[in-house]
């Protein structure tokens, strides 16, 4: 049995090797085979694996053995017969017959697969058809033995002719071979599928680990970028404020009268300084929003007054560019609890973009109107469990150049520009809409965009009233 176990370790079933019958064949199937042969021939059948383990057995008590066990020395005899049959392992591929002192015999048949012994089956005990007398050795076994009873019990055992025994063993061997072949193929297919799934899982695990590593690295780089922008922006803001302040003093003739050319130069310095200050402020705002350190200061806000104030701020700019600026406050607006400075920053950014991308003779429209905000209702959905609140929708639309639909999903990404070429007509850093999106989210609202090339763009910012 130890040799069988050692053999099992040296084979690989995935490569087509089998060390033991029990590796691939279902025991219930073997038991059914034994049952069928027993029903057909009334012969006991036992099937053993390569390691000597009994896998299936169908038999009935042998009356002769039961009688012998009643005798003083008969019990040991029966035990020795059974042990001898169990230990008998054919060395080749031929049937090995084991003859016993009782006259009964056992046929031990090797089960091989692809040239390798994987088990054996035993048929018997049965009596050769030519046997007519009780063996003398059995009669001498015990003085109290009943010779006539021995003969009757021996003759009641199954009697099989030599050629019939050969046909039975050949037939049973063929059935087991067929079962072994089909079971092995099914098992091999299953093993290959499992191996394939295991390999796919390993590859997936490796890719997941690489993605996680890349994600962690990108996250680290993003944090370094945010820290760098915040530090640089802060360090640039102080000297830039001084530059703008001194340019304003020079424009006010504090250092003496300026001629027209000097005043033009100072005006350019002041203008570009303000543009750079706006960029630095945007970088600082983005950094604070990304790090979650920007705090809103909510308070009651008059939405109508906010949109009208926006008109006063941008009317000169629109007029100078030849753009018609239209402002509408539709109906009674609900009171909002928001940060007025940040809300004005959101709308001012959108209004500035609308004017920048609208050509002369176009129209920019700023509208504030009441609407409803639908709260989601959890796992059962908004329809069943949701509720609504009043909200204000700010719509800023233009008749400018518009954007293709493929670009709309990315316009809220930081530093992204629809026209990112070095020769683009309209300037900008690509930070404005990213800041707008983050500020709107911080207010618990939503921003959407609708645009078509050559037909203009409409941004809608919806801010709900505070939850009661």
Which terms would index this structure?
alpha+beta, Helix Hairpins, disordered N terminus, 468 residues, five-stranded mixed sheet, Heat Shock Protein 90, 13 strands, Beta-Lactamase, six-stranded mixed sheet
Per-chain topology:
Elements lengths: L1 H8 L17 H15 L3 E5 L4 E5 L4 H6 L5 H14 L8 E4 L5 E9 L2 E13 L7 H4 L7 H10 L2 E2 L1 H90 L8 H32 L7 E3 L1 H19 L2 E7 L5 E3 L1 H17 L6 E13 L6 H4 L1 E12 L33 H11 L3 E7 L3 E9 L4
Parallel strand pairs: 5-6, 8-10
Antiparallel strand pairs: 1-2, 1-5, 3-4, 4-5, 7-9, 10-11, 11-13, 12-13
Helix pairs in contact: 2-7, 7-8, 8-12, 9-10, 10-12
Would you kindly provide a written description of the structure presented here, covering whatever features stand out?
By secondary structure, the protein is an alpha+beta fold. The chain folds into three domains: 2-160, Beta-Lactamase (2-Layer Sandwich); 199-288, Helix Hairpins (Orthogonal Bundle); 299-464, Heat Shock Protein 90 (2-Layer Sandwich), CATH 3.30.565.10. 49% of the residues lie in helices and 20% in strands. The strands form three sheets. Strands 1, 2, 3, 4, 5 and 6 form a six-stranded mixed beta sheet that branches. A five-stranded mixed beta sheet has the order 8-10-11-13-12. Strand 1 (45-49) and strand 2 (54-58) form a beta hairpin. It is rod-shaped and about 150 Å long.
């Amino acid at each position: 049995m130890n040799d069988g176990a050692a053999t099992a370790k040296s084979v690989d079933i995935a490569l087509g090797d089998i060390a033991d019958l029990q590796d691939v064949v279902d025991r219930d199937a073997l038991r059914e085979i034994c049952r069928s042969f027993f029903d057909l021939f009334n012969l006991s059948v036992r099937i053993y694996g390569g390691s000597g383990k009994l896998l299936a057995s169908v038999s009935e008590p042998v009356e002769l053995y039961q009688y012998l066990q009643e005798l003083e020395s008969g019990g040991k005899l029966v035990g020795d017969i059974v042990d001898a049959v169990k230990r008998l392992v054919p060395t080749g591929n031929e049937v090995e017959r084991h003859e016993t002192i009782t006259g009964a015999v056992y046929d031990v048949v090797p089960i091989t697969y692809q040239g390798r012994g994987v088990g054996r089956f035993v048929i018997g005990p049965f009596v050769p058809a030519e046997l007519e007398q009780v063996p003398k050795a059995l009669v001498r076994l015990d003085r109290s033995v009943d010779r006539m009873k021995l003969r009757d019990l021996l003759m009641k055992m199954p009697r099989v002719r030599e050629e019939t025994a050969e046909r039975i063993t050949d037939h049973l061997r063929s059935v087991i071979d067929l079962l072994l072949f089909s079971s092995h193929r099914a098992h091999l297919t299953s093993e290959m599928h499992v191996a394939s799934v295991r390999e796919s899982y390993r590859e997936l695990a490796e890719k997941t680990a690489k993605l996680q590593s890349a994600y962690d690295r990108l996250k680290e780089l993003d944090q370094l970028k945010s820290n760098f922008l915040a530090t640089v922006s802060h360090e640039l803001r102080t000297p830039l404020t001084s530059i703008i302040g001194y340019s304003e003093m020079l424009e006010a003739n504090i250092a003496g009268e300026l001629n027209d050319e000097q005043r033009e130069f100072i005006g350019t310095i002041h203008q570009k300084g303000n543009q750079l200050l706006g960029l630095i402020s945007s970088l600082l705002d983005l950094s604070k929003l990304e790090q979650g350190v920007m705090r809103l200061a909510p308070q009651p806000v008059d939405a109508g007054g906010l949109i009208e104030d926006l008109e006063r701020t941008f009317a000169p700019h629109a007029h100078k560019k030849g753009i018609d600026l239209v402002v509408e406050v539709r109906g009674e607006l609900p009171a909002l609890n928001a940060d007025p400075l940040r809300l004005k920053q959101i709308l001012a950014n959108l209004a500035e973009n609308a004017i920048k991308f609208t050509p002369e003779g176009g129209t920019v429209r700023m509208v504030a109107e009441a609407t409803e905000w639908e709260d989601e209702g959890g796992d059962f959905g908004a329809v069943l469990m949701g509720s609504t609140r009043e909200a204000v929708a700010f719509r800023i639309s233009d008749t400018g150049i518009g954007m293709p639909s493929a670009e709309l999903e990315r316009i809220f990404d930081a530093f992204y520009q629809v026209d990112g070429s070095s020769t683009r007509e309209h300037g900008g850093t690509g930070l404005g809409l990213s800041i707008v999106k983050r500020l709107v989210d911080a207010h618990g609202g939503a921003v959407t965009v609708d645009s078509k090339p050559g037909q203009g763009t409409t941004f809608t910012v919806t801010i709900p009233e505070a939850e009661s």
